[in-house]
Specification:
There is one protein chain. The protein is built from 18 helices and 19 strands. It has 2 domains: about 1-25 and about 330-420, Arc Repressor Mutant, subunit A (Orthogonal Bundle), CATH 1.10.10; about 25-285, pyruvate-formate lyase- activating enzyme, CATH 3.80.30.20. About 45% of the residues lie in helices and about 20% in strands. With about 450 residues, it is of the alpha/beta class. Helix 1 (about 5-25) packs parallel to helix 17 (about 390-415) and helix 2 runs parallel beside helix 3 (about 105-120). A 9-stranded mixed beta sheet has the order 10-11-9-8-7-6-5-2-12. The chain has a 5-stranded antiparallel beta sheet with strand order 13-14-15-1-19. A 3-stranded antiparallel beta sheet has the order 16-18-17. Bound molecules: iron/sulfur cluster. Iron/sulfur cluster binds near residues 52, 56, 99, 101 and 130.
Amino acid sequence: MNFLQKLALSYSHKAMQKSLENGFNVKLLKKGQEKKVNSKKSYMLYAHIPFCHTFCPYCSFHKYYYNEDLAKRYFESLREEIKQIKDKGFDFTSMYVGGGTTLINEEELAKTLELCKKLFNIKEISCETDPNHINPKKLEMFKGLIDRLSCGIQSFDDDILKKVARYNKFGSNKELQEKLSKAIGVLPIMSIDLIFNFPSQTKEQLLKDLEIAKSLKPQQITTYPLMKSNLTKDNIAKTLGVSFKDHEFEFYKIIIDFFKDYERNNAWSFSLEKNTFNDEYVSSHHEYLGVGSGAFSFLDGELLINAFNLNDYSKLIKEKQNANIAKANFSKKEIIKYVFLTEMFAGKIEINKFNKTLECNLEKDLFIELLGLKLSGAIKKESNTLYTSEFGRYLFMVLMKDFYTGMDLVRAVFRDDKRLQDKERINIMQENVDPLDFKSMEFKG
Ligand code: SF4
């Protein structure tokens, strides 16, 4: 990386932290805010399934330990919230289901997806899963319901799997390959999700992971960088070890080179064939509505946060109230920056289309930012389109990682009920909270 690139990376990282500080100044609501439809906009539906059997040490997603009765009651509330959204006039063409372990109770999930297909014009559903929930017989029941299934494998290396506590839970390299080869092909798109840049991971281990993933011929492969931040680094060091040199950029270049014969969906996802249905709902949909405990909605420049506590969530739904308990407002400039990030993360921006959708003048509104990015060689303009360079892809990947790290902090703050008590506002980026603190993930209903 040359001097200008290092400068661009450091400046962009600081600018992102500043944006998150401004944006994540969250107001706690006494009463949930009404979600209003704008008939000119298209929305995506996000549903959250907050349960896992056990927890992985690097994972900061919102989840509680699975309990069948609790989960059944949760799914009932979730379907009730979906019906309430329909009554407000919303419609969706695509849906993303995230967790937790989304397929932890297949029957309940199927019932929920069938309801969504009945109520809305949903054409495609993407769902996350883990290697213990890809039994072909069980997957058969999702034919015609789930279009894309992404399976978190993280690594095929037995040593790494042991370190991340997945070897006993999900199986060895050999077992993972057997499970995947039986599951690939049951549903239209299967994505194998890997993580790179584990402490002590070598170049050879990374290449082996990529080769195995490719040899299984899934329709997509996604390679996430390990999400580390100042707040999680101690916890990661405790469980995964410490590395004295960070290999993120070097490994990213290896990945890009390895998948040069694949279609690029965005900075970290690759497809055998061209398709638009990928892993990042935030990059493919600017506005989305989230249902379920801890789900986020981004509507009209506002981030709405649903109740995390399962009792609070069910109570709100039962009383036919809005399930959101907090909101953050973004200025016009922050919205432009956010959409710019998500689109450049996917590789390009058609300037006229961008300006029309956001009613802005991108080249004027982000003049300084675009100048810096052009000077460092991160982006280039050809006629009416901005493209990312190889370095630009890495830079936007790092910024997306920063953004997700910020969202992890929001989750960590909001699942800690005590922290929210008697507060009117909370500035998330100033809270000293560890997103990997498992104690705060135990549900005491
Ligand atoms: S990585 Fe997946 S299975 Fe592991 S704790 Fe996170 S959501 Fe659960």
